[in-house]
Each structure stands twice: as structure tokens, then as C-alpha cells.
Design goal:
The complex is a heterodimer of chains A (365) and B (202). Chain A is of the alpha/beta class and 365 residues long. Chain A contains 13 helices and eleven strands. In chain A, the strands form two sheets. In chain A, strands 4, 5, 6, 7, 8, 9, 10 and 11 form an eight-stranded mixed beta sheet that branches. Chain A has a three-stranded antiparallel beta sheet with strand order 1-2-3, with helices on one face. Chain B has a single domain, classed as P-loop containing nucleotide triphosphate hydrolases (Rossmann fold, 3-Layer(aba) Sandwich). Chain B is built from seven helices and eight strands. In chain B, the strands form two sheets. Chain B has a six-stranded mixed beta sheet with strand order 3-8-7-4-6-5, with helices on both faces. A two-stranded antiparallel sheet of chain B has the order 1-2. In chain B, α6 links the parallel β7 and β8. In chain B, α1 packs across α3, α2 crosses α3 and α3 packs across α4. Classes of the chains: A alpha/beta (365), B alpha/beta (202). The interface between A and B is large, with 45 and 40 residues. β3 of chain A pairs parallel with β3 of chain B.
Chain lengths: 365, 202
């Protein structure tokens, strides 16, 4: 007969999870745990250690013997250790991100981009999938800062547009590169007039629908759209970080292990989440016999990543200082010394020196 | 018979096709005892406590047998109650119906007399004379729509491409127990268990 303690364990754990935050684990017994999803559904995990004869603490031989029958550690991890992603392809950015997190990710809550830095953006439209808009800044040395994102799934264009308009610095964005397919005129309800007396409908593009909603910002990205090239370029920005600073930085004060949909004016948690999960495709055992290791990148959770790709692969230049900014920098030491007369003279000289002269084309006189 | 755990462990038997290789005395055996497989007791206890369950598991823990036993018991003892099993392919779901039929057949005669089978049977159905059934269907959300079962078991959900849609269909189709049971693998079932599925509300 079962003891009353044994009887109460599972139900007690199930009850306990109701008071715990989502995904908090309650133990039932060795090898059996319960947690709840954010929707309140109980998730029970049955690990092989629940069976006393397989418990590594009681009988380590079983694991050794059983592990030997699996062809790879990944297969073992997936089938017996209940690791969903075991055996997937190599993570592309996670290693460098984790190792140099403090260099790549700006987490200082006070940090803001310089107001004079040029602002560009990348955009990836999705309907069921998230629509992602990543805003980034370029400093005078060419360092790229991803700082601000919009990442929302499931809305229509007329719902996205007002949200995008409220984004910080949206009016400073000089160009927003987008997937060229949103410019294709392929959205058509009918070629007949929608109402009698009106002209026939014509096909529209997603971009046109955004324009109708007041978002006249997107330019088709015409560069290299290969994910492999993008990965190589980004890894180049993050290479050799023991000896130098990264030239692509991501601002994020609210990183989470899952998507955080919404408008993040000065942070990019979803971009980081996608980059952390980015994997190369895994070849099957049969494919491995005939091909080299995979380099292709899994086409999943790549919305913010695509937006980043459009910006990065457009080969952006550093922000150029204006003539006045350069002139001010030249006279700054004189101002600090209090020599305002010399400062003014030097300032005017600098303005004159930087004045652009017309290029004469034609016969030399 | 109202206690599915008692029924499964005391009044019926499972079969083991590898009984020779595993040097067992016979192909038919009772469910392992509490001392051998304590988690099966937890399984039955949990199943009776709430309507929806997600199970993630290591291989060969007899979880599928346990879920089949729980739902078969419910279909057998309640007149006109239907339960639905769904797997990726119809060949696999036939196996689950075979599990259910084995559990029925290996009961004592007096229990089989108490809950007789209907005349017409098939590889995909175990029909009771009282009008209830255990029904097997292949993968695909649209497969569920024609049924209004009390219970629903989605087995190896990680390997069903539209498991998410099946879940949504099951919510409206099944009035009672909804069970998603699987070993690990990437996809909707992994995401939903770890709260990484996006929806409009989020």
C-alpha cells in the first residue's frame, strides 16, 4: 500500500505551483518536477532518475550502459536529459556575446546616444511573426550602437503605424532599410471597383500601406542579404575583443530569456534574444556523409536580426562632424584658457579653411 | 475501477514486444509497481487533478502507456464517452489503439463482461457496446474538428509540425482531459512549455 505522504506529493507540488511565478519548479520526487507556464498550464517533467534502477545516485551503471547505446551526446541529451535544443546546429553569436557581454552590451541605465550622431534603422515587416524596427546610431569613429526597437507580432499595418510614430528619435532616422519584398505590388483584393462608380482597385505594396498610415521612411535594401555574410560581418565587428572594443554595440537594460514584445525606446532586448538563439543548420547523419559542416543559418526567430542585417550590410559610414563642430573643437583649448579674442580669430579661420570650394570643370584659365 | 491507477496496476496488463531480449517471463505484465516506477503513481494523480497537462519526459518511462491507460479507463467506465489519441502518423496511432485494446483484453473476464465491446472494431477504434470509443487519428489540426471527445492525448507532440494548432482545436473540441506528452525536441511544444510562444496578448 502507498503511504499518505507518497499520495500527497504530486498534488501538493501542483498546488504549490499556483502560488509560484510562472516557470518556477516544484519538486514532486526525485526525477519528477512540476512548473506552470505563464498561462497556468502545468508542465510535468519526468526524468529517468525517477526510476530508482536508473537513478545515477543509486545505480550509476545504468547511465553508463545506456549512454553507450546512443550514437552521440546530443542524441542522449535530447532523448534522456530532455534538452529540446540538443543536437541543433552550432550557436553563432551566443559564445562571443556571453564571453564579452560587458563590452558588447551597454547596460548602464543612464546611457544615451549623442544627439549629433546619425541615426539609421532596419525594418522587417511581419504579420503573424513580429514586425521589427531596429534603430541604430553611428558615432564619429564608426562605432554602431543599436539602441531602440519596436518588436510586436500579430498586428495590422494600421496598428503598427501609430506605435512606430511614438518611438523616440524616429524623426531623426535618416534612412530605414527594409526587406525589398515589402515594395512589391502584390497586395490586391480585386481588380474590380470596390464600390460602383469608383475606379478599379490596383495592387499595393506593404510599403504603400505604411505610407498611407504616415510612415514614409523605408528604403529597399539592395545589398547582400545573405545571412552567412551578415554573420561573418558581425563576428568581424566582434573579433579580437580581448585587445579592442567592439565596433557594434547593443544597448539593453532589460534582457530576458524570451521575447519581450513592445516598443523599447532605448533598448534592444529582442535583438539580443534572437542573436543569442541564432544557430547554424544541422545536417542529418546522411547529409554529413556527402557535405561539409553546415554554414547556413536557421531561418527562425530572425526578425530583429534581419533588421540589424539591413543596417550592417549597408556598410554605414561614421557620422561626419560639421564644419562648425570641427571649428569649435579647434578653439576649445583657447576658450578654456580664456583667450576669447584668439579663439574667435581661429574659429573664423577654421570656418574659412573648411569652406567647400567649387570644382572647376573646363579649360584652365 | 474509478481509480485508473488501481485498475492499471492491479486489473490489467501491458505487453512488451522485446520480452525475449529483455529476458522477461512473458510478453504481458502488469504496470510496474510503485517501488519500481513511482512516477506512474504521480502521473495518474496529476491527470485526475487538472484538465490540461503538458508532459516532458525521458524515453522508456511508460508515460504513453500511462496516459493511454488513464483515458481508456475513462472511456470504458463512462457510457458514450469518447477519447481521442493523436500522433504524427496513422501507423503510430494504431500502436496506441493496440495499447488500449491490450489493456482491455488483459482484464479479468468479469470486467470485460461488465464493459463489453461493440461488434464493429478497427485498427483505429476501440468501440464499447455502451457507445463510447477510443479513437485514433493522424496528425493535423483539421483531423480533430469532426470529433467531440471527452479526452484528448497528443503523443510525441514535439514531432508534430502543427501541434500548436492541434492544441487550439483540442481546447474547443475536448470537454475533459487534454494531454500533450512528448520527449524533447525543438518546435512549438518546446516553446510553449518554456513560455517563448508569442501571441497578441503578450
Amino acid at each position: 500500500m502507498l503511504s499518505s505522504t507518497a499520495k500527497s506529493k504530486a498534488l501538493a507540488a501542483l498546488e504549490k505551483t499556483k502560488a509560484l511565478p510562472a516557470q518556477s519548479v516544484a519538486d514532486v520526487r526525485r526525477g519528477v518536477t512540476v512548473r506552470r507556464t505563464s498561462g497556468g498550464i502545468p508542465v510535468t517533467r519526468f526524468h529517468y532518475s525517477a526510476v530508482p534502477a536508473r537513478d545515477p545516485d543509486l545505480n550509476p551503471e545504468w547511465k553508463k550502459k545506456e549512454r553507450a547505446t546512443y550514437t552521440s551526446q546530443a542524441a542522449w541529451d535530447r532523448e534522456q536529459e530532455i534538452q529540446d535544443l540538443a543536437g541543433g546546429g552550432e550557436l553563432v553569436f551566443a559564445d562571443v556575446l556571453v564571453t564579452y557581454w560587458n563590452k558588447i552590451v551597454i547596460s548602464n541605465p543612464e546611457w544615451r546616444p549623442h544627439e549629433k550622431w546619425r541615426v539609421e534603422a532596419g525594418f522587417d515587416h511581419g504579420r503573424v511573426n513580429p514586425t521589427a524596427f531596429e534603430r541604430c546610431y553611428f558615432d564619429y569613429d564608426g562605432v554602431i550602437y543599436f539602441c531602440g526597437e519596436y518588436y510586436v507580432p500579430g498586428l495590422e499595418i494600421w496598428e503598427h503605424a501609430p506605435n512606430l510614430k511614438t518611438m523616440a528619435d524616429i524623426r531623426k532616422v535618416t534612412v530605414a532599410y527594409a526587406d525589398p519584398t515589402i515594395f512589391d505590388f502584390n497586395l490586391q483584393q480585386s481588380n474590380q471597383p470596390s464600390q460602383p462608380g469608383k475606379s478599379a482597385e490596383r495592387a499595393k505594396s506593404f510599403n504603400e500601406l505604411y505610407v498611407e498610415q504616415g510612415i514614409q521612411l523605408f528604403s529597399p535594401f539592395s545589398g547582400d542579404r545573405s545571412d552567412i555574410s551578415f554573420a561573418e560581418r558581425l563576428l568581424m565587428h566582434w573579433a579580437n575583443l580581448d585587445k579592442r572594443e567592439p565596433t557594434v554595440k547593443i544597448v539593453c537594460r532589460n534582457y530576458a530569456e524570451k521575447p519581450v514584445p513592445g516598443l523599447h525606446n532605448w533598448d534592444c532586448p529582442n535583438l539580443l534574444w534572437e542573436l543569442m538563439r541564432t544557430r547554424r543548420t544541422k545536417l542529418t547523419a546522411q547529409q554529413m556523409l556527402t557535405r561539409n559542416a553546415a554554414e547556413a543559418i536557421v531561418d527562425k526567430d530572425n526578425h530583429a536580426r534581419d533588421s540589424m542585417k539591413y543596417v550592417l550590410m549597408s556598410h554605414p559610414e561614421p557620422t561626419v562632424k560639421s564644419v562648425k563642430e570641427k571649428a569649435y573643437e579647434a578653439v576649445e583649448p583657447l576658450i578654456e584658457e580664456g583667450d576669447l579674442t584668439s579663439a574667435l580669430i581661429r574659429y573664423n579661420q577654421q570656418l574659412g579653411a573648411n569652406e567647400k570650394k567649387p570644382v572647376r570643370i573646363g579649360k584652365r584659365r | 475501477m474509478r481509480d485508473p491507477y488501481l485498475w492499471a496496476t492491479q486489473y490489467t496488463e501491458t505487453y512488451n514486444p522485446h520480452w525475449v531480449e529483455e529476458k522477461r517471463a512473458a510478453p504481458y505484465e502488469k504496470f510496474p509497481s510503485f517501488e519500481e516506477y513511482p512516477h506512474l503513481f504521480d502521473l495518474f494523480e496529476l491527470l485526475g487533478a487538472e484538465r490540461i497537462h503538458f508532459f516532458e519526459k525521458s524515453r522508456d518511462l511508460m508515460l504513453t502507456w500511462g496516459c493511454v491507460a488513464f483515458l481508456t479507463n475513462k472511456a470504458m467506465i463512462v457510457p458514450a464517452r469518447e477519447v481521442l489519441f493523436q500522433t504524427q502518423k496513422s501507423e503510430k496511432v494504431k500502436q496506441l489503439i493496440k495499447y488500449a485494446r491490450c489493456l482491455y483484453d488483459r482484464q479479468p473476464q468479469w470486467l470485460r463482461d461488465a464493459f463489453p465491446l461493440a461488434r464493429h472494431q478497427s485498427d483505429l477504434r476501440l468501440n464499447f457496446a455502451h457507445g463510447g470509443s477510443v479513437i485514433g487519428i493522424a496528425g493535423g489540426a483539421n483531423q480533430i474538428r469532426s470529433y467531440h471527445p471527452w479526452g484528448y492525448l497528443n503523443d510525441e507532440s514535439s514531432f508534430q509540425p502543427d501541434a500548436g494548432d492541434c492544441y487550439n482545436e483540442a481546447l474547443s473540441a475536448a470537454a475533459g482531459s487534454i494531454i500533450f506528452n512528448s520527449s524533447a525536441g525543438p518546435g512549438w511544444f518546446a516553446d510553449v512549455r518554456h513560455d517563448v510562444v508569442l501571441n497578441r496578448e503578450e
